[in-house]
Specification:
The chain is mostly helical. The chain folds into two domains: about 230 residues, Fido-like domain (Fic-like fold); about 60 residues, Arc Repressor Mutant, subunit A (Orthogonal Bundle). The protein contains 15 helices and five strands. The strands form two sheets. Strands 3-5-4 form a three-stranded antiparallel sheet. The chain has a two-stranded antiparallel sheet with strand order 1-2. A hairpin with a 2-residue loop joins strand 1 and strand 2. Helix 10 packs across helix 12 and helix 11 runs antiparallel to helix 12. The longest helix is centred in the C-terminal third of the chain and has 24 residues. The protein is globular and about 70 Å long. About 35% of the residues are buried.
Amino acid sequence: MESYQPPFSTTNEMLTFSAEISEKIGKISGYHSFASKPHLRRNNRIRSVHASVAIEANSLSLDEVRGVIDGRTVIGPWKEIQEVRNAYRAYEMIGSFDPYSLEDLKKVHGIMTREIIPNAGMFRNHEEGVFQGDICIFIAPPPRLVPDHMKNLFAWMNRSRKAIHPLILSSVFHYEFVFIHPFSDGNGRMARLWQTALLSDWNPIFQYLPLESRIHEFQEDYYDAISACHKEGNSDAFILFMLDKINITLDNALQQIGRNDASLPKTVQKLLERMEYNEPYTMEELLERTGLKSRSSLRKNYLVPAIEKGLIVMGIPDKPTSRNQTYIKVS
């Protein structure tokens, strides 16, 4: 019997993307910034979790997801809160399991869907389809074929891990996993987690990059790329989509690091590390995030220098003393 080979081509455009991405990874690794900034790492992980569950229609906001992870009481549907808890536990395990092991994938799926479905960690035993409204746009392979499809996919990855660039291999896996749709729930979340795990096995920096946020930002294009691959019978369109979003993620990471480099005052560095991009914060929220008590100290030593450097803008710039004023870290 011939060994399974997922249908895809390695094009010049893919190789160009891979070279650009590798160059940017080298720049980020040179900074050692994520290793020295646990708060920045944690913020990015929370963004990954929020984005991945949001793609699957979880309605919790970024702040609510942060609250769930921090152990605060959050009002929301029980299932959505549990999805966040499970996803965060699964992402925290990256680096402790083997992304080339099918058994490890099933174990992590058990964590991703714990208390949500009765067959967590087990392949589905029923037909599955993907719907757009009331219209079924894709029928997954029948359940009797799932175990062999998954064994073949992991056998291919293990054969190819030294021959195919991890950026391309992980993208092929992501698409093939979505196509097989091996579980009754959590397939999208697992596909995104597993690509991050495969990339992290290649370079640990990917543990701290919110790739899922870029997928969420371009969610319609994400589904369009998957649909195009279904029609074309290969994963080329999806590989290009993922390489582009990885490239953008690295651009944002370089911005994060550049905005927090040693040339900035430590007060400004601290403030920026505790703020998400393009999220409005009140003075009270910034006091809580920085652990400060004095509003005047926050304003004089943190906010004013950051605003002067153009790193933070006011939400109501024409009314700087407004009681409803907010502050936004700009990208």
